[in-house]
What we know:
Elements: H1 2-5, H2 8-33, H3 45-65, H4 73-98, H5 108-135, H6 143-160, H7 163-167, H8 196-213, H9 226-240, H10 242-262
Helix pairs in contact: 2-3, 2-9, 2-10, 3-8, 4-5, 5-8, 6-8
Amino acid sequence: MEKTIRAFELDSLRGFALFMMILHHMIFDFRYLLGLKVFAFQESLWFNHILQPAFLIIFLVVSGICCQFSRNNIRRSLKLFIISAVFSLGMFAGSVIFKQELYVFFNVLHLLAVGTLLYGLFSLWEEKMTKRQKKSDFPSFDTSKYGDIILVLLSCAIIYGDQLTSVYAGRVQSYWLLPLGFLPDNYIGMGDYLPILPWLGFFFAGAVIGRIAYKQKTTIFPRTPDSVLTFTRPFAWFGRNSLLIYLVHQPILLAILYGLRYLGVW
């Protein structure tokens, strides 16, 4: 039954993207926290402008698609807001304790919370519009169709709106606009940062894909061979538990790396 009900492909894609993000955090820790002269490719253009964005886009698009499967996106967004706030407080405490600038004011958790809330409110508006049309004498129109168009336009506007952060770079000196992507001069060091412009656009692009391709809220590959399911199962497990894994992976990595340093491994 799982083959025809659970969208294993979404779990696997999100899990694979999360796995690559964890690898990135690990090599970041090696080079910048432990100070080891390894993994210099992190400073290359191809890594920062091709490889890393590719995995982020996959993760965000799949997260947007998964809004189609949620029973209550507004409630889910409130949960994400609480978790992201606790995460930021934890990173603030860690930065003070370890005397390193690893602050997290707005990253992928905050971005998902904002995107999920906005999509939940948008869906609520669609439902109200549909009910109003049924009670009205005016000819009805396909709300979901126009909703898809609105989301596509919103996605494009946010993605291309990233150009504003370049145009106004250095002109905005307030941390209040940091979530949008406007960084003040001499901003405090951050351990992670993922602004709304352009990244939320990919989340909404995923939401449109979910509305079109996953209307039945099931896998679109029901006849996938068992061999493929077996191969993707580890990534699918990562994807199903992505929130928990994201929250605990860095403390576990740091405990292992600093523990090995204490033992004299490096």
